[in-house]
Write a structure and sequence with these properties.
Elements: E1 4-13, E2 16-17, H1 19-27, H2 48-53, H3 56-72, E3 84-90, H4 95-108, H5 115-119, H6 125-133, E4 140-143, H7 148-157, E5 163-170, H8 174-180, E6 209-217, E7 230-232, E8 236-238, H9 255-266, E9 278-279, H10 286-300, E10 309-310, H11 313-316, H12 323-337, E11 339-340, E12 362-363, E13 368-374, E14 380-386
Helix pairs in contact: 3-6, 9-10
């Protein structure tokens, strides 16, 4: 069976760590989390000697991977560690270690540079840290492209692994986050939330976020029906400078979103009528929000005014490298709980957003949810997740 299932989620965010805290943070957001940019880590599950050797993104990747594996119930079975692969994505990767290393060399000289810091400067340090510390011996790579989840699905279908940890991460770095705030489209006031789609939208908030998904084929010898959250379909991605979420371009066009959503639906033999919920990539950048909204209206026509459509980025922020995985996790939990979180902090819709944005949590028996994500380097991706049926 070639179907791919999400069997575990490990998530670290500014609204809570772990599946339950994260979900409660989505459906009952707290104002105290609006100004939080960093995740509050709890490191009791990682050996102190390991913590000294790895950087921030590696710590988050390791913590969320441990949590995801626990939720997948994998270790209830006698598993061959060569069967577990790792595919990770991040924009900032090991920037904190690079800056620390270069600063030391510049200010004190080569002799003062720490070898431990140096080994963490490579872009794939987090995937290496997870593989080494969890003793995973399977297929492993670090990508810098938004199609990392599509790549993971294809890797499973082509028998590169029987289980894959698919991670999307963005680690807090003060210098980088402060630099983002120099742009007019990034909110600077700590207590001001992002308001996707709102007529008064003043931009987005960059926040730390990390999410790991455990993916398995339906015929995996390790799959446990009790841990299956949903099926994930292959998806579609477009690379384009026309959709670059880290800028305030008034020239955004909806075409890329139209292409990815249409392809994601049609390649699975589905119809627009099958989709009964949408998680948008919209983050409070009004030009991006409007372009994506127009694309949804183009693809779904009149149904765009009745399908529940939301963005959670008013709550979790723009997590850049983690934005797709966090959206996927939220959509999977919506299917599981029969509830979609509303687009919080949106009060009055922009007149150009002529689709059914839900502002309150909405109940439903969701069977197919469309999820959009954006690439900080330029481009968009669309995936569909499907309610699990007892079919294995």
């Amino acid at each position: 069976m070639n179907n791919i299932y999400i069997t575990g989620i490990g998530i670290l965010s500014t609204i809570g760590n772990g599946v339950e805290e994260f979900w409660q943070g989505l459906i009952n957001p707290k104002e105290a989390n609006i100004e939080r940019e960093q995740i509050i880590f709890e490191f009791s599950r990682i050996d102190k000697k390991v913590l000294k050797k790895i950087n921030r993104i590696s710590k988050g990747a390791l913590l969320s991977s441990i949590d995801a594996l626990d939720n997948s119930l994998l270790y209830n079975k006698n598993i061959d560690l060569y069967d577990i692969g790792t595919v990770f994505y991040s924009k900032s990767t090991s920037l904190d270690s690079l800056l620390d290393f270069y600063s030391t060399v510049y200010s004190k000289g080569n002799d003062y540079a720490s070898p431990l810091t140096f080994q963490s400067t490579v872009a794939n340090s987090c995937v290496g840290s997870v593989a080494v510390n969890l003793k995973l011996k399977g297929f492993s790579t670090m990508l810098n492209t938004i199609n990392y989840l599509i790549y993971s699905i294809l890797a499973l279908k082509n028998n590169k692994a029987k289980v894959l940890l698919c991670g999307g991460y963005e680690a807090y770095n003060k210098e980088l986050f402060d630099d983002y705030k120099n742009n007019e489209y990034v909110i600077k006031k700590p207590k001001e939330p992002a308001r996707p789609f709102d007529i008064s939208s003043n931009g987005f908030k960059v926040k730390e976020g990390m999410a790991t998904l455990v993916l398995q084929r339906g015929d995996s010898p390790y799959i446990n029906k009790k841990s299956i959250l949903c099926e994930i379909l292959q998806g579609s991605a477009v690379y384009s400078s026309d959709i670059y979420p880290m800028c305030a371009s008034s020239e955004y066009e909806p075409n890329d979103f139209i292409d990815t959503m249409t392809c994601a639906i049609e390649q699975e033999g589905l119809k627009n009528e099958d989709i009964d919920g949408i998680f948008m990539a919209a983050n409070g950048n009004k030009y991006l929000d409007v372009a994506e909204s127009k694309a949804i209206k183009n693809v779904f026509g009149e149904r765009s005014k009745c399908i529940p459509i939301t963005s959670i980025k008013g709550i979790v922020g723009e997590t850049i490298g983690a934005n797709l995985n966090i959206n996927i996790a939220a959509a999977a939990l919506s299917i599981k709980n029969g509830l979609m979180p509303g687009s919080k902090y949106t009060n009055y819709l922009n007149d150009e957003v002529d689709i059914n944005i839900i502002m309150e949590n909405t109940k439903g028996d969701f069977k197919y949810i469309l999820v959009n994500g954006v690439c900080a380097m330029g481009g968009v991706v669309s995936h569909i997740i499907k309610k699990y049926r007892e079919e294995l």
